[in-house]
Each structure stands twice: as C-alpha cells, then as structure tokens.
Amino acid sequence: MTPTHLPGRVAIPSLPEQPRSAPLDRFNTAPVDDLRPALLTCLRSHRWATRIAAHRPYPDVDALLAASDEASYDLTPGDLAEALAGETLPALPDSAYSAAHMAMDAAHAAYEAKFGHAFAICLDGLTTEEGLDHVLAGIRSRLTNDPEEERVVAAEELRRLARERLVSHLRGAGNCATSPSGAALGTQQNKPPHTPQR
Predict the structure, then answer these.
(1) How far apart are CA 193 and CA 198, in angstroms?
(2) Which residues lie below 8 Å from residue 164, measured CB to CB, with a gap of 6+?
(3) How much is the pLDDT for 9?
(4) N or C terminus of the chain: which is more exposed, having fewer CB within 10 Å?
(5) Cβ atoms of 165 and 43 closer than 8 Å
(6) What Cα–Cα distance (Å) separates residue 35 from each residue in 46, 127, 161?
C-alpha cells in the first residue's frame, strides 16, 4: 500500500532562538541617564556616547562594536580633543622599578609637550608587564610623527580603546589597563578617572 499524502503545507520546524546576552540586554534597556556616564568611561566623547545610546537596541555585541567603530570614525577634531583630554597613561605594576616610572614620566612629558594631550594606546591582549615596554616604545616611535599624523594614530587608538572597554564592561571584567572604571554598563559611575601610579 502506498502512503497517502495529506493536503496542506508541511510544518517546518523553527530554528532555536539564539540565547540573548544578559549584559547586552541590560545595556539595551538601561535608562540613558544611567548609561551615558558608563559610556563616557569607554570614550570621553559626549557625541560618541550620545550616538551609541541613541542607536539601541543592538541585536548582538558585534553590532554594538560596529556602531562604536562607526561613531569613532565620525568624530570631529573637537570631539577627538575632548576624548584625548580624558585619557591617562596605563598604571605601572606595583613591582615596577622607580627607573621605569621615571622613563614613563619623561617620555610622556615629551609627548604632551609636543602634541598637547595625553598619550592614548590600546593594550588589548598584553599583560601589564608587557604593556610598559609597549607604551614606552609607542611614545618614542610616535614622537617622530607630525601633529596631523599623530592625530590620525591617536584617533585609531581611541577607537580600539572604546571597543576594548565596551567588551570589558559587558563582560563585567572591568580590569582593562586603561579603563578608568570597572562598573558594568548601565550602572552609575561614581569613581574618579584612573590616574597613573607614581
């Protein structure tokens, strides 16, 4: 006996829903007044923070990071100056010798004297100890830039820092070497900006 085919459409099983990220859900639903101070710890540009908050909800972290990149690329020179004014050097580890502190201070003073703002660098993936050498090498290398070249390099480092800090906050890690705060996004920030250890 041959099987009979019933009229009508065959039901196609639906794909399982992808699990949503709880931190991203909190980010998407946080009141703007709570979210803005947290965003400003990632990049101290009011234009950038306003734009990131206004384009919620984000379907996933990749979409948030893409929006962060796009907003970073669109910053004006004035916005970049505002963001750079909020940057500080990464803290040296407690075990660093005084000579390392002196070398960092001298290199950074020379950089600030030439460019008029703090040195910005992303240390994503580096340990604190590796970061010291990376920062010193970066300052010395970038001191050879002219102001326009350095503006482009600094803007790229700020873009990378914003991404790193967003990811760090979403993960609740809060231990980014150059991040001024460790609170999760969507919560009020009451901590002062991070300052280098002396």
Answers:
(1) 15
(2) 122, 124, 176, 179
(3) 46
(4) N
(5) yes
(6) 12, 29, 18
Residue 144 pLDDT more than 80?
Answer: yes
Q: Which DSSP state fits 7? A: S
The residue with tokens 């004035």 is 78
- When pLDDT is averaged across residues 114-127 and rounded to a whole number, the result is 92
* Cα angle 56-28-188, degrees, rounded to a multiple of 5: 115
Q: Is the peptide bond before 57 cis (omega within 30 degrees of 0)?
A: yes
Tell me which range, 39-43, 89-93, 122-126, 177-181, is most confidently predicted by mean pLDDT: 39-43
94 is written with which tokens? 């407690």
At 68-101, the pLDDT tens digits run: 999 999 999 999 999 999 998 877 777 777 888 7
**In this structure, what token pair is assigned to residue 114?**
């030439």
Residue 87 and residue 44 in contact, taking contact as beta carbons nearer than 8 Å: yes
- Structural domains in the chain plus CATH codes: 29-171 (1.10.3330.10)
Q: What are phi and psi of 3, to 5 degrees?
A: -70, 145
> What b-and-e string marks burial along 131-169, b requiring 16 or more CB atoms within 10 Å of the CB?
bbebbbebbeebeeeeeeebbebbbebbbbbbbbbbbbb
